[in-house]
Amino acid sequence: MRKEKPHEVIAASLHVPDGLTEIAHELPLIMKMIARTSRWVHPETFRALPIWCPYTARGFFRYDARWSHVLVSSRGVQKKEENIQAAQALVEALGVGRPKPKNWTVCHIWGYDDERFAGSSRVVQDPRYYSCIGNMTWLPTPLKGFTDAVPEIKECLRVCAFHLYGWACEHEDHRVTAERVRSGKLPESYPEDWPTAERHVQPVGTAPYSERVRNSIARRKTRLRQQLGDTTLEHYGHDAVREVLKSWNVDLDD
Fold first, then answer.
1. What are the distances in angstroms from CA 193 to CA 53, 208, 216?
2. How many CB atoms lie within 10 A of CB 57?
3. CB 191 within 8 A of CB 156
4. Which residues lie below 8 Å from residue 11, measured CB to CB, with a gap of 6+?
5. pTM passes above 0.85
6. By the 8 A CB rule, do 20 and 143 touch?
7. What are phi and psi of 116, to 5 degrees?
8. How far apart are CA 62 and CA 70, in angstroms?
9. What is the pLDDT along the chain (254 residues), one digit of tens a residue?
10. Which of 16, 63, 217, 242 has the smallest CB count inside 10 Å?
11. Could you write out the three-class secondary structure of the chain?
């Protein structure tokens, strides 16, 4: 019988489990890191102005200052909104000064629920939720992947936002999840120092409702009033913006 030569021996393949299964036992540690480092808008800021850019959402065309022409890149491609204005809104609502610190990333709390990222999130494509400051938290960039990919972590963020702001996403894509969040049930790895129905506290990274923030809110409202009153802004979408503001009961004269 012919002997196998050494190079003909087939090695057994390495078994590697699903990545989420591999880190499942580390979730309490990951949540502790998120609880220590995440930054949240103050509840008073949310109540004063829950939506900051009611005229845009992910995938919307980006226009010039007069809303007359779509911006075009150096390669001739029409520009679309990615996460720029939502990020700017959150930084303003937190009261972060300049220069803006590096290695921080905006996380939409209600957005993707597709672990393959194969589809599009209709929530962040909706102007009612894209720049909602209760739908965002600020995270050190390396932690952003956890909040995008791990369902248990998303659930913790949503429960925290609900108890902090009294709001859960009303979008039809999240109806079942929102009902579960409103039920008061806490996820298994929910941080012990985050708010619950009985524990009326704020996350350690909650920003103050400072004079800087109040001034930002006043400027935003003034700008929105001016834009809504300017009928020459051809592509602004005045009626759609009014509907978004109405859905949040925002009074620009308040």
1. 31, 18, 29
2. 21
3. yes
4. none
5. yes
6. no
7. -90, -10
8. 6
9. 555 555 555 667 888 888 888 888 899 999 999 999 999 999 999 999 999 999 999 999 999 999 999 999 999 999 999 999 999 999 999 999 989 899 999 999 998 655 554 445 789 999 999 999 999 999 999 999 898 889 999 999 999 999 999 999 989 888 889 999 999 999 999 999 999 999 999 999 999 999 999 999 999 999 999 999 999 999 999 999 999 999 999 999 98
10. 16
11. CCCCCHHHCCCCCCCCCCHHHHHHHHHHHHHHHHHHHCEECCHHHHHHCCECCCCCCCCCECECCCCCCECECCCCCECECCCHHHHHHHHHHHCCCCCCCCCEEEEECCCCCCCCCCCCCCCCCCCCCCCEHHHEEEEEHHHHHHHHHCHHHHHHHHHHHHHHHCCCCCCHHHHHHHHHHHCCCCCCCCCCCCCCCCCCCCCCCECCCCHHHHHHHHHHHHHHHHHHHCCCCCCCCHHHHHHHHHHCCCCCCC
- Find tokens 């489990």 and name the residue: 17
Residue written as token pair 């963020």: 157
Tokens of 159: 């429960």
Tokens read off for 238: 């005045």
Report which residue type is found at 28: P
Q: What tokens were used for 104? A: 């921080």
In 3D space, the residue among 237, 254, 235, 252 whose CA is nearest the CA of residue 127 turns out to be 237
Q: Could you identify the residue written with the tokens 């524990």? A: 199
Tokens of 214: 């109040």
